[in-house]
Structures are given as structure tokens and as C-alpha cells.
């Protein structure tokens, strides 16, 4: 008898107050990381009147948020939604997230929705710029400055039945390449203007936990030595994802491939998850990931079909790119082909995806042979799809009518969009289990006293990429960051 | 730096043909386990004309299927559904399972639905008795012999939007205590009548894999020694769940409590999962479980509300008992209370659940104090719920109107239904990853040649108890058992 082989995951040792000779500094609230979640937490705690210290590993604030495309998932009737003529309500937003994410903490999700429009206003009040404009197309990264866009599965079955679809991706004014930075600049400036103390080039490498289990401080590593900082009220961990943590990825995400590329900054090594675990906090959804190598733009490619190595479709092709990619990842051999006819043919426009044209064929039967699919499989798939499409429906996967047309005008072409051949960018979705106050929870969902985890160090609302909508990092990250800041300062919410 | 502590899981060593001095017996297909999945597999393989051997650990067939309450989840317009006046179709059944389970292999699920009514007919042809009758109430174990009953979340939001609700639990004629046995008897008799060879008191303790990765035989332990059996076409593992596998439960289901009780027979020690893993097959949903300690019958209790230790509701109270229990398991401290007013008051009727009456109070404010809930929390929850219920809706959790009434006629009572205090029975849902032919799949969803895994040794269609419907063990177990039998015999399906 042998044992199941296991990857070893590094977790820092927890310290006790007896390990600390003397505290180098004492504050009320220590905020670890100055991305969007940490910045919002620091602003709220500071404004509630307590002593805050931001501790950031990099030489300046911004984090992965500042490198992102700056999309906040918000709704419930924001001014942008109103200007674009898309009615929305907290109930509709909650219905969508409840149906698509089946969230672990439905009440935290509901609070996020109830407060979402007000949270948008707050972001604007801090100076985060949002246009009153709408982008109607299908894009992954928007290279123009429009604000509102569809960034999830709102219009796809069965979620379109559970909630009236509304676009909820709110992009900071700026192009997809610098919108995240444009969003972080005013937030960071507020920290400066309000003189919130911050130390940079400073990595928190351990937590200090007293005999009652309360987190009372941190150990900080700087170039020239070690600091110990006491945090009378608590520590807010907001130091990002584990997108670069090879041990955690191997343990929990073995389906990532050699061609998968993390969307990450160098500090996304899982420090936040590890610090949380060191204090007895529990993790959630560590096998969750949103991968993406979108087939669109151009949108017309959505009218193609996607099949696996068995020649079978496996997902509605009009779902959000992260949902589609998650299904591709799970197919036999991680193989998938995008198949189009002459009417639909176009090259996928996201060059980083590296989708390649396999070949063109006069008939589906020839393509089936050319792709080495099982005899008759692709022909049967196409026959069923075309018959349904001609009738304006897709009984098997419920692709919406807008994207349905019989693929019957040859020649036909196939793009290889296999998970292990194309370049799928990814973001991990797992992290520390938390509640609506951003408090870190143990296995039994009870708070670890004095410890908060927000942003990408905490588990996202969606636990798989199948349920992810772009903006569900910055949106909840900033919102629960604020709530953690208020709570750690001893202030009520709302 | 320390490492994450890990439970060690026992997996048998894989054997190579060189380890086998001589084969004691040679067959075409070896079927490991004679529950419903293995029996169906053996019948189909035998009838396709190949040499089959059933290898069963117990002294006779039946397995956990024979100890079960005998519910098969089937639909698509079975004769029982027709007789009861419930129209159903393969499309509606697939829509429900797609929306509620978001299955890993949507095409396997679709095949199960497409063939479901025909599979019902096949079961009847083997002699499995089903009445043409319908039970309209809310029950967990039916102590009468009616066939058709609601056994899942078909009528609850949002799944009721994705598919026209239909009852699909088909219970074998017999009471809930012996229906499983009544279902297995004719199937086992068929094996005898058709002279399918079987050996009992025989445990498969290892698989034999050749240098190409193909499974070519098994090692069998009997009281008086060891046998090696060569399986020319392949081995079908159908030896049940890991409900009693303490190592696997500790590793994957740490939320199970001291008061959780497995629904299991002694051989449910995870042998099937372990054998599959030994050959390189991958596991799915090992953190999936359906726990149950239903609050109904009587159905009127569904009109109560259920709150956690924060005084918040967290689930629609009219969901299926397994979904409700899964949410209870995840609440802070695993604590939950069922709260009723004087109109709704009744004692839960399932004695094994051990739900206890905490106390009665004249007002909600007094109950809040009596249950040690946060000040104001229960009053706020009740105010919101009662206002919505008076308007015939439940905006937060979408409990259906049939079960809504303002809880405003004191006195009020609370039952403690906490996961770690009541007795929640459970069934594990995880297992080996398989395809529509019952073939065992490796991490990349590619078949391990010669190896099939069906029944509770394979992962269920629903990956969490939140999505489970009773009958999704015997229904797919028997269906994919048949498919594996045909495939291993080299015969087409359908």
C-alpha cells in the first residue's frame, strides 16, 4: 500500500507575542497591500478615526489592480447604467449572482448588490473616473474609453431566465491597457492627501497571534532588517492572488498547462493565502480559475461551433469567454476546435491567444477526417446543430438565437483553440474564506479574531471560471475592502 | 517555514503482468461488485456475448443498492409520469440537470436524459417492479409503495425557470425500507437465470496494468488465498462509495461532524476510488456530499424560516432537503435554527434527525435573546421576511409562494437543526471521473484503457449535495452500468 502523493505547500509559521522582543511600531489597523482592496480598506479605517499603517511589498501602491483593465462589476442602477438606458436593480443583480454563482455566503453577495450603486458613487467621489458611455460590442479588453460593457453570462442560458440581463462591467475611463492605473491613481492620491502612513518595500512575512487566537501584529521584512508592528484592532490582508504560486497551483490546479499564462505581478505568490492559513483561516475554491483565450472579437465567430476530440459540442458558444475556456480546459486531452463555414469565417483577433487555423475543407466529412475525429461524430454533431439552428433554437446547449445560423455554406475551416496549445491567460479565484465584513473565517466559518482578508487574497464570489464575470475582482475587492476597514476601525457599516 | 499538513490516503499498488506468476482464470470482462451498476453491467456484457465474471466482496449480491430506498431518477416521459399526468421530455429533463448540476460532461448527462424513458422500460423488462402511482406529499423515505415522487429541486428557484418541473423519482414498488431490495432481487435473479458466473466473498485488492497502460486483470483476495483473474476486454469497477473511508473523508470532507452518519454498507470503504486511482484515473468532486436531516415531514414546517448564528436566513426553506443540509453544514459554527410561529408549529417527524425543540417565546425579540443571536438581527430578518411573505414573494431567496406566510402569530418556537447537533445522514458524491461509456478517465479526461468505473465508485452527475436529487445514484448508476457493460463487450450502444 502506498500513499497518495501530495505537493507540499509552504505556510509561514505563526508567531506568538513571546516571540517578539519589542514592537517597533504600534497602530490600530495594519493594512497589508495597497491594491484596490487594501487602499479602500485603509481609507475607510483612517476616516473612521483610527491609526492606520499601510505595508506594501512593492516600492509604490497600485498592485495588480493598477495593472488590470480596470473593470468593476457593479449594478443595481448606477448612473452609468441609467445613462445607457439599462434598468437594473439590486434584486436583479442579486438574482443573477445567486443563480450563476450559488455563492457560499448569499448574504454577503446580497449586501454587495444592495450597496452596489452607492459603492459606485463612492468610487467616483474618490476621483475614480467613469464615463457615462456604453460599449455594445463583444470585447475582452477595450482599447477605447467607454465605461459600461457586458462582462459575464448575463444574457446566456439559464441565467437570462433568473434575472433580467443588464451590463454591469464598469470600466474606468482609459483604455484597457491603462484603465486599472487610471483607477488606482486617485485612490492612491487620497491616501497621500489624507496622510495615511505607508511603508514600502516591506513584506509581511508572518502574523502574530496571541493565546486567545487573536491576530495582534505582523513581522515585516525590509531590505535592511526586520520590523514588528503591533496592530491593536487587527490586520487586514489585501496582498493579492496566488497566480504565481507554483506549489498552490500544482496542488489545486493541475489542469493548467504549459501554455497557460498568469495575469499577475511578481508579488502574486500567494502570500495572503499563506498568511491566512498560518492563522487557522480556511480556504475556499482553490481549484477555481478563470482562464481565457477568447474566440471573439470578431463577434461573428460566436456563430461557429466548438467541438472536442470526440467531435461533440460541449458548451454554448455564446457564453462568456471564461466559462467557455473553463469547459475547454476539461475536455478530453484539453483539445477543442472552433469550426466555421464560409459565411462566418474570420481570424480571431486576440493575438495573445495564439489560436491557429488548422485548415479548410470542402465538406464536414473531410474536416472530420482531417481533424482525426471519430468517424461520423462531427457529421452527426453538425446535422443536429444545423437542424436546430434552422429552427432558431439550440436544444442541447441553449445558445441564444442571435448567434444561431446553420453552418452549411462551405468551405469549412477549423481553428485549434485547445487549452494546451493556445495561450490561455488565467486568474485564480480561490483564497481565504471570509464573511461580509471581510473577516477571515476558520473551517467552521467562525472569525479568526483580528484578521481580515480582502481582494484577491480572499476567495471570490464565483468559485469557478464558469461563473466569473469580469469586474468581480475589483468590484467586490473594493467593496469588501471598505467594509473590512470600517469593521476593523470599530465603525458600523452604512 | 512549515508545510501544509496532509492526510495520507491509502492507494493499492498497481501490478504489472510480470508480477503475476500465472492467471487462475481468464474472462473477457470482470465486473467488480454486484450492486445495481455492476449487475446491469454484467447483464449487458453477458448478453452481448462475452465471458463475464462478477467478483463480489459480500456473500451475495445487492450491495448498498439493495439497502437503499430504491429510488431511480428517470424521466423524459416514462409510463409512470404519463399515468400520473406529468408531461416530461428528454429536453426538459436535460434542462433541469444542466441548470442545477452544470455537469462536467454535459453530453453524458444528455445521453442519460435522452435514453431515460427507454431505460425505465428496460428495468421493468428485467422485472424491477414499479407501480403506476404518484405520491403528492413531501417525504424523504416513503413507507408506502407509490412510485413517482418529487425528489429534487425541480420546483425551486431558479431551476423551475430553466425547465418545466416534473417529478422524476421512480421508487421501486415496496416501502422505503425495502424498496431497494425489491429492485435488486429481480436483477440478481436474472444473473442466476442467465448463468452469469459470479464469485462471492472475493475482494479485488489490486489491478494489473500492462506496459501500454491497459488494465488487463485483477488480484482477488479470498478467505483461503489469492486469485489472479485476467480480463481480456477490461475491468468494470462497480464497488460502491467511500462513505466509510475515514482517510478520504478527512482529506476531502472535513466539515462532516461527529454527529454525521454515513448511509453505507461495510464495503463502502472507497475500494473503487482507490483502485481507479492506482491505475491513474482521476477523481472528481471528492468534496461533494449530500447530507440530510430533513425538516419535513410535516410539510407545514417549510413555512417556517431557518436562520444561522448571525440571525440571517441563508437558503430558501423549500429547497430539497439535501440542498438545505449542505447550506446548514457551511454556516458559522454549523449552527442553524428552524423558527415557526403558532400557526406552523409541529414537531419534525424524522426521528433519526434528532432535531430538538429549543424553547418557545412570546416575541421574536425574546427568541433572539434566548438563542443568543446578535441584537436586532433576528427581528430584522423576520421583519423583511414577513413583509415579503405578506406580498407573496421572497426577494432574498425565492421561496415559492405556496410556502410563504408571515410568521406573526406568536408564540414562536425554535428547533435546533445544527449540523453538529442533529444527526445528518450522508452519501459521498465524488469518485472516479468517467465518460458516457463509463470509461475511467485520467486527469486530462482521456480513457485509461480497459478500465470502467460505474455506480458510486464514479463521480455522480451532481457534484454537490446542493444539486442532488434522490435517485441520481441508482438512475445513472444503472444506466452507465449498462453502457459500460456494452462497451466492454465491444458492442455499440442503442
From TrEMBL, chains A, B:
Q: By its UniProt entry, which Gene3D superfamilies does this protein fall under?
A: FAD/NAD(P)-binding domain, Succinate dehydrogenase/fumarate reductase flavoprotein, catalytic domain
The record's listing under InterPro entries reads: FAD-dep_OxRdtase_2_FAD-bd, FAD-oxidoreductase_2, FAD/NAD-bd_sf, Succ_DH/fumarate_Rdtase_cat_sf
Q: Locate the FAD-dependent oxidoreductase 2 FAD-binding domain: which residues?
A: 28-459
| GO terms, biological process | steroid metabolic process
Q: What UniProt keywords apply to this chain's record, in alphabetical order?
A: FAD, Flavoprotein, Oxidoreductase
Names of required cofactors: FAD
Q: Which GO terms describe its molecular function?
A: oxidoreductase activity
- Keyword Oxidoreductase carried by entry: yes
What PANTHER family does the entry give?
A: 3-OXOSTEROID 1-DEHYDROGENASE (PTHR43400:SF10), FUMARATE REDUCTASE (PTHR43400)
Q: What is this protein called?
A: FAD-dependent oxidoreductase 2 FAD-binding domain-containing protein
Origin species, per record, is: Caenibius tardaugens NBRC 16725
Amino acid at each position: 500500500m502506498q500513499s497518495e502523493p501530495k505537493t507540499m505547500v509552504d505556510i509561514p509559521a505563526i508567531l506568538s507575542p513571546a516571540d517578539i522582543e519589542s514592537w517597533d511600531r504600534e497602530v490600530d489597523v495594519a493594512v497589508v497591500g495597497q491594491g484596490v482592496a487594501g487602499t479602500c480598506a485603509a481609507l475607510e479605517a483612517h476616516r473612521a478615526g483610527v491609526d492606520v499603517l499601510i505595508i506594501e511589498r512593492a516600492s509604490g501602491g497600485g498592485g495588480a489592480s493598477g495593472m488590470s483593465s480596470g473593470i468593476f462589476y457593479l449594478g443595481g442602477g448606477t448612473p452609468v447604467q441609467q445613462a445607457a438606458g439599462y434598468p437594473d436593480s439590486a434584486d436583479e443583480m442579486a438574482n443573477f449572482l445567486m443563480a450563476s454563482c450559488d455563492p457560499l455566503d448569499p448574504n454577503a453577495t446580497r449586501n454587495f448588490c444592495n450597496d452596489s450603486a452607492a459603492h459606485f458613487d463612492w468610487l467616483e467621489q474618490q476621483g475614480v473616473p467613469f464615463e457615462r458611455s456604453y460599449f455594445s460590442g463583444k470585447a475582452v479588453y477595450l482599447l477605447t474609453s467607454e465605461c459600461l460593457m457586458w462582462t459575464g453570462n448575463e444574457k446566456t442560458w439559464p441565467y437570462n431566465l433568473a434575472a433580467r440581463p443588464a451590463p454591469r462591467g464598469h470600466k474606468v475611463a482609459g483604455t484597457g491597457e491603462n484603465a486599472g492605473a487610471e483607477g488606482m491613481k486617485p485612490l492612491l492620491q487620497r491616501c497621500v492627501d489624507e496622510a495615511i502612513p505607508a511603508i514600502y518595500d516591506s513584506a509581511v512575512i508572518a502574523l502574530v497571534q496571541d493565546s486567545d487566537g487573536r491576530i495582534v501584529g505582523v513581522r515585516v521584512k525590509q531590505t535592511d532588517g526586520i520590523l514588528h508592528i503591533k496592530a491593536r484592532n487587527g490586520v487586514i490582508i489585501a496582498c493579492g492572488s496566488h497566480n504565481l504560486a507554483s506549489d498552490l497551483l500544482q496542488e489545486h490546479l493541475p489542469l493548467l498547462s504549459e501554455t497557460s499564462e498568469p495575469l499577475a505581478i511578481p508579488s502574486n505568490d500567494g502570500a495572503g493565502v499563506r498568511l491566512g492559513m498560518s492563522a487557522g483561516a480556511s480556504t475556499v475554491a482553490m481549484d477555481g480559475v478563470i482562464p481565457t483565450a477568447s474566440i471573439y472579437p470578431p463577434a461573428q465567430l460566436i456563430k461557429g461551433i466548438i467541438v472536442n476530440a470526440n467531435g461533440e459540442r460541449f458548451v454554448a458558444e455564446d457564453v462568456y469567454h471564461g466559462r467557455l475556456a473553463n469547459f475547454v480546459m476539461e475536455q478530453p486531452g484539453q483539445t477543442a476546435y472552433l469550426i466555421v463555414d464560409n459565411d462566418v469565417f474570420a481570424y480571431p483577433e486576440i493575438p495573445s491567444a495564439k489560436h491557429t487555423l488548422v485548415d479548410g475543407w470542402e465538406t464536414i466529412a473531410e474536416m472530420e477526417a482531417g481533424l482525426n475525429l471519430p468517424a461520423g461524430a462531427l457529421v452527426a454533431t453538425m446535422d443536429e446543430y444545423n437542424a436546430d439552428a434552422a429552427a432558431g433554437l439550440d436544444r442541447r446547449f441553449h445558445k441564444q438565437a442571435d448567434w444561431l445560423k446553420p453552418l452549411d455554406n462551405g468551405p469549412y475551416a477549423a481553428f485549434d483553440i485547445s487549452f494546451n496549445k493556445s495561450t490561455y491567460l488565467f486568474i485564480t479565484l480561490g483564497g481565504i474564506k471570509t464573511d461580509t465584513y471581510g473577516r477571515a473565517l476558520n473551517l467552521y466559518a467562525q472569525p479568526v479574531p483580528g484578521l481580515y482578508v480582502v481582494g484577491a487574497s480572499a476567495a471570490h464570489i464565483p468559485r469557478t471560471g464558469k461563473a466569473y464575470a469580469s469586474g468581480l475582482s475589483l468590484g467586490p475587492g473594493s467593496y469588501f475592502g471598505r467594509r473590512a476597514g470600517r469593521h476593523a476601525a470599530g465603525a458600523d457599516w452604512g
